[in-house]
Specification:
Blueprint (H helix, E strand, L loop, with lengths): L2 E5 L4 E6 L10 H15 L6 E6 L10 H6 L8 H16 L5 E5 L3 E2 L1 H7 L3 E5 L5 E2 L13 H20 L2 E2 L1 H7 L4 E3 L5 H11 L23 H18 L4 H13 L4 H16 L2 H18 L15 E4 L3 H12 L4 E4 L3 H20 L5 H9 L1 E4 L7 E6 L5 H11 L3 E9 L6 H4 L9 E5 L9 E6 L5 H13 L3 E6 L6 H17 L4 H11 L5 H8 L1 H17 L10 H12 L12 E3 L5 E3 L15 H22 L5 H12 L10 H6 L1 H15 L9 H7 L7
Parallel strand pairs: 2-3, 3-4, 4-6, 5-7, 6-9, 10-11, 10-13, 11-12, 13-14, 14-15, 16-17
Antiparallel strand pairs: 1-2, 7-8, 15-16, 18-19
Amino acid sequence: MAFHYDKDAAGIVTVTMDMEGPANTMGPHSVALMLDTLTRLEAEDGLTGVVITSAKKTFFAGGDINTIFATDGDTVGQMMPFLIENKGLLRRLEKLPVPVVAAINGAALGGGFEICLACNHRIAVAKAGIVGLPEVNLGILPAAGGIVRTIALIGLERGLPVVTEGQQYAPDKALKLGLIDQVVDSPDALVPAAKAWIAANPQAAVQPWDRPGFTYPGGNSETPANRMLISLAPVLLHNRTRGRLPAPEVILDIAVNSTRMGFEAALVAESRGFMKLVTSPESKAAITTFFFGMNQVRSGRFRPHGPAWTAENSAVLGAGMMGAGIAWAHAAKGLPVHLRDTTLENAAKGKGYSESLAAQAVKRGRMTDEAAATLLNRITPTDRLDFAPVDIVVEAVFEDIPLKERVITETFGLISETGIYGTNTSTLPITELARAAPDPSRFIGIHFFSPVDKMQLVELIAGEKTSEDTIRKAYDYCVQIGKIPIVINDSRGFFTSRVFSTFLDEGQALVHDGMAPAAVERAAWKVGMPVGPLQVMDEVSLLLIKKVHDTNMDLDKRLPDNLYKTKNAFSEAIAFDMVARGRGGRKYGGGFYDYAPDGSRSFWPGLADYARGNRPIPFEDAMDRILYRQVIEALRCLDEGVLRSETEANIGSIFAIGFPGWTGGVLQYVRFVGIDRFKARAAELAEQYGSRFAIAPGVFEKLRESPRSTAA
């Protein structure tokens, strides 16, 4: 039996969940197992308590996402009987006449934590018992009583963030919130601690919400403090989701109203909310990318076959902002690094960046002084090149081809016989830079994003001669330092930079067409971009954007057979003209915005000079232009073979350039809208606003044929 049943001499039954497969999951099989177990417990003579634990590394992994993803309008009706039966079993569990303890040996997320909430007491292992209700991140909600019990357990003030934000809580944080009741140091201490609590609390068999006179912690929705919280919550939620995600709104409504109705009625409302969300395009998009897609990346589906590889030592060349960040990423994950610059002073300044990050971590209690010292000792600033060969070199000097070529030629010998050489660049073609490498098969593009310590994604770019062995090692290196790698074929501007440049260009196109700059920024915010295109350009610096453009134009002369395809005409007409007028961006005193000494900003009045349109731009058109321009560029990357998979495109677009998460990613958005509807809308935009929205024949067919991110 997959739920092992063991009764001790004191009358305490330990139920150890050990379903077939790597994890315990909620579905028809678990319902049958729970039914058999409860029937046996209810008939047990001399029962004094129950401990529920797991034989897996995790406690319980939650619902069967494959089944949830497959649910559509034709099959959704089959979900309600399952939800009712599952909830009924958890009600039977919490109404047993003896105390029930959840002994949480590993992660208890989603349905797993909902089982824990139906217990009278929850004990977790200090370093393993992560808990939470992450369903909202997949566009659905916890449908086994998670919302209703969380609010009943800890109240609206503390409970609303738990159910609407989908965070995962380490045991110490969960203990402070009241989500769990006790922490032990090791898995071996779990069951003994659970039995000790049962022995000390034989009368604790009734859940708080089942006791006469129960009141919600902090009061129900009618108390003054909660009324203010409830009035502000929708506004705060809208600011976070831009109104694009239905799940948080549905969860908020259920959570608030659960305090106004009986417990059983609230459970029914929760089930109805789940039924509403499970077939939504938002849930399909989220599950496709954030569950199936991320699992594919983390499992190495896009990694070339071969043995696992670990770098034992490394070097970063260039101690500027990017190089310093890369050195931190290495040291933070235990990889020793030589941080080299032209002067020891510059190299030491680069290490200073890590010293600052470590000091902040210590101040916030996230790192001890000893751990900080150990981390910093892994970084060796130097102005020399006489250290022993290393497993990986990351060149991170300025985006200047002659400079990079010289550095690559001079330093390629620093890698060991089995080592690899990576160049950190956002646009420069890897195949061209590889000409400077004595062995181009061991040369690869490694595009980090700024700030490196916060940005998870790394874009690996394979040149024409980059070997699969080098890609495999670079992939493993990224995982080793805690990054999410995607693999891209070489192209002028690669994938992320090409797509992101169109976002910036389309913002200027809207200004050119006569749309108010504030409305342009608002349209970008409304569709879910983190920051408006005009503000982004100011922060990045118009001067830097122009330098990248000029470099690519010089490359066009050098590479006549490989011209830069992504032409950003509006940047040339507006941003680059602004540079000529002395407006280089925020760092240089002003760009699209003027900046006051108090930190406030306002649009530069001179932007009116660039407006050429004389007709109003519908706000809906502006939002579509911002999204469609990026998606169409991604489709071109797919058509050209720059992209190797839809999954990597979707994850890369969200984690690297902030493409709106509600879409599921830049190519998933086409499926979100529907291929035929997207094609028709793109044609409308092309007719009204220009050929940049035109899509070459055959692109959609390639998308139709491309393997989707599914459970397979």
